Batch of 2 targets.
Target 1
Amino acid sequence: MKLHRKKDFGMITPEMLQRLNARDWKEIFPKLVLYALYRLKIAGRREAHLEAKDFAQQAIVLVYEGKRKWNPDQVPDLLVYLKGVVHSLVSHHFEVANSRIKQHPTAVLADGEKLSDPVELIPAPDQGPLEKLELEEIQRALLNWASDDETLQKAINSLFQGMKRRELASELDLPLAIVDNCLKKIRRVLNKFLDENNN
Amino acid sequence: MNTNDFKSPANHDILHHLVEELSEAVENDPAALREALAEEGIEQDNLVQEGLQFIQGLQTKQQAHEHLMAAELGLFEKVKTVIEAVLRPRRLLAFPKYAYALAAVIVVTFSTWLLIQQWSSKEYIASRGEQVEFLLPDGSKVKLNSESRLALNFTEKSREVALAGEAFFEVRKGELPFVVIIEGAAIRVMGTQFNVKSRNKKIEVVVSEGVVEVASTLAHKDSVIILTKGQATIFRIGESPALPQQIYSEYPAWTSGKLAFYREPLKNIIAELERRFEVTIQLMDTTLENETFTVQEDDLDTILTKLCELTDKKYRKENDGYTIY
């Protein structure tokens, strides 16, 4: 797998190296791989499970080499930062694969770091990997599946409106653990839907 | 809804949001995380193991970079001073040009030997046609190729060797860095396996295991690079080490008695064969000297046959060696 990489090379400071080394990678790594997996599935990748680890590793390399500059003061949770890098890598990878050159607004991470050059490759109108799926179609499929569970239906609709886990808990007046259980069920169905769609 | 709507930022954001929230719900529950990975055919323990190994590799590499910084300030300065004291050309006096040329030849030929002489608390020599293998005081193993010399400077505070020629090192891990000094460069490791070749003003370092720092002690900038397993650098004395290139053989061929040359000028191949087999090989057509060849064979006759095939020449055995004509 060849990923698009910037040419500039920056070293991290010894302090940053220490901070990175001190992280609980045993916990971070599988979570990052799972995140990469879903990002790849959303991007329409059939072999997402084979590629996810590569993208996760690539994100970690970029942070270790200082090519992506993690600022713990702005984004304390390294996993959150790494997810942003994976997101950027996956998007950019498939955009490059299906692209043409055009002026495009630069994406910005949570800490304000720019993720791509102002002039970048964006999907050509008839080739974008995301067009394999339709958002409404996904939502409809999930609602059909949850047709006899009102809480799940509400959770799905709220989720598609952009609500976060905690907001959902508040909106549905449910403990976070219950909301998480709903989300786990939704995840499983969504996962199946994506697999079917990608095949 | 048409497909173009799907690519609108709003929809893209929702998809991103879905991934974020659904992942987070799973991440907070170790059992769910394990199950989610298993659904994809990924065994979590193996994944973690693999991930940790990968990250450990990165950490080692970055720590080596840190050592490198320290090395630039300290150790390599010292090494540079030692080498420069021996090698730096003195101010030229009013001698004829041929005298300078002669002096230069003498300096190039004997400078590393002088360096070795300075250090020769213990010295190993492999003559032409000979390869020797021995253990160093710290338990590290060295294979010395033909016509090579190695001097030791092992003290309580140092594990340093000076090399002229070619050697393969299996360095035992220790608290002190292991430093190989050759004319124009120094190689610094903690515990690893690598081959160093310094002949005809050309330096070649190939890493079989671990991480190695290679510093040019004569170039002025970008003088240090890091090599990891399966990487090599080749550069000329006085230049900065070339960027790492991938190699496809775990060990240098000579350590297992084979002969292998990769894009090597014919004159260098002949010189290596002469050293290894203690013979002289005369190349009648000197226009071929700088042509490069890639060959791998097991013995002298086979490699000469191969070279003759490639150059459309023949060879014959004579009293003290061979002639390619």
Target 2
Amino acid sequence: MTGPSGAGKTTLLRLIFGAEKPASGHILINSINLNRISRPKLDLLRRKIGFVFQDFKLLPKKTVSENVAIALEVIGLRPKFIRKKTHQTLRLVGLAHKEKAYPLSLSGGEQQRVAIARAIVKDPLILLADEPTGNLDPQLTMEIMELFKSIHQKGTTVVVATHSQELLQGTDCRTIVLNHGKISEDAL
Amino acid sequence: MRSYFIRQALMNIRKNLTVHILSLGTIVASLLILGAFLLLFGNLNNWLQRCGTTLSMSIYLKDGISEYRRDKVDSYIRGLPGAEIKQFISKEEALKDLRAALGDDAGFLSRLERNPLPASYEVVFESKGTYGVNPEKIKGELEKLDGVEEVQYTKEWLKKFEGFLAVVRLIGFIIGGLLCLCVVFIVTNTIKLTLYSRKDEIEILKLVGATDWFVKSPFLLEGMIQGTIGGILAVLTLFLGYLILPTENISLLGLTPLDFVFLPAGYLILILILGTVLGVIGSFIAIGRFFEV
């Protein structure tokens, strides 16, 4: 999903996430209407949606492993399972060796991969990423996009919002261009 | 899940230890004042009840009463059901007692031309018999006897004291209520500080699908822990104070000695529960409007 700043990319992601309600129209996820969803059910739905932020939103006083485990702790899973699943996910994003490190000691690309690990550790149905490569250099950007592709291939719907046209060049994904809150282009 | 909440609550306390210690100190002080009041009021109330069941009477005799008349009064008193003459205080003994009570200020007594104090009988009615005794009637009959100047009995004074205790009780309720509000206010503010220090974490927890109660529970637990520890420390401090302070042989206005006892178990449990409940209410108010993510 692309478009200039202010086109409504972040707003659309927030609408899908249930952080905002639409002024008109409906948001349907797996036939669930977000306009009519109760607060407890929205919390449960969010467990099936992963969100990756441009500014990572990692907790600096928690280790990499603890940051990722948070997403499983809220579901109330057993500590043993949480440890195993967290380790597996960090291995998937190539950060198994940094489990005990703190976010501020990592590079920007590594921090973003921790944020992605936190978003995918609970095997979400949808992964939303808001400018996930905005703070990264081209090399790291490519690495992150490759990671999204591999997550997508495992069956997760991945929605990436970016203002960078270059990022989308040569990609075989569906591309939606937003302008002033409206779809101006939708290409497969 | 439960261990996660406890871990989080203890971690919150550890991370904001100074704030928690200060707040705990204030909670302990508030509950301690409340406990001290209960202790004092409970003992005064018990004492009043004991005094109420033991009727004591002072019968003052006229000056210059003849031996014959005094014997008449004496035998009349002995004839009253349940009555026991505890003491006969002659005019000279009354003056001596007053001199001893006044101490250094007793100088003016030596300048008196005559002893103005009356001789008196101190009479006590046994508890068992008190139920059937009508003090007002006995007083009336005694005062009709030739040679009796005046009769006073404890209940007259006790009635006034009961009124005083009712005022103390009312003041106690008001002070107690204010102290409870104070504890709630302190806990609310402490938990708010913890909430602000963990604002980012709360936001992230909400974003990854934590329910409101999942996020709120550690904070409620934190307030509960604070209130409970405050209650325990207040009870312990109160007991320590009770052991240290001289509480034996306290006699009020020459009546039955005040048998000062510590608070009964029910009151102690009440203070502990109060601490816990106030802690939970305080944290409940603090988290009330914090979770609009």
